[in-house]
Amino acid sequence: MSILEILQNNFQSSEITEKNNKLLVSNNLKSILNYLKTEQCFDMLLSLYATDYIDYIELNYYLYSTVKQEYILLSTNVQGNTETVIDIYESAYFDECEIYDLLGINFTGNNDLKRLLMPYDWNGHPLLKNYEYKKEVLNE
Is 45 helix (H, G, I), strand (E, B) or coil? Predict the structure, then answer.
């Protein structure tokens, strides 16, 4: 039985599909990630990254199982806020901060969400497609 079929059987209230070797999840993301870690041995979050598609932001969770030696890519769409997963995968902390910093996604439950790459007083989130860049004048 494939991991897609296992997830569809265990999370029947969630719409879970596969496209381009990526599992697309519509809801219950945190429960699914917890299940993948505890029951399916996907014990490592290798990367969490995001892409802005103007109408929504796609979050991608790239997982690895050291037991099965398998990879899985889980994807969900968000608009604004989503739950943190640092209680499941502690390694998500810096990725969540980077996504907040550059794309403005607020990870509720992450009580130490802060800017990592941009100055603390920076206005806006520069990787959003609707972000307006202003030409800076250098004083020499």
Answer: strand
pLDDT in tens, 108-137: 999 999 999 999 998 899 999 988 876 554
Residue type, 37: K
User: What separation in angstroms does the CA of 66 have from each of 30, 37, 40, 41, 75?
Assistant: 20, 11, 11, 7, 21
CA angle 16, 21, 107 (to 5 degrees): 60
List, in order of start, the domains of the chain with CATH numbers.
Answer: 3-84 (3.30.460.80)
Which of the two residues, 1 and 45, has the higher pLDDT score? 45
pLDDT of residue 137: 42
Distances (CA, A) of 95 to 6, 8, 21, 103: 27, 27, 22, 11
Contacts for 49-56 with beta carbons within 8 Å, 24 or more apart?
49/95, 49/99, 50/99, 50/103, 50/105, 52/103, 52/127, 52/128, 52/129, 53/129, 54/129, 54/130, 55/79
36-47 tens-digit pLDDT: 999 999 999 999
pTM: 0.90
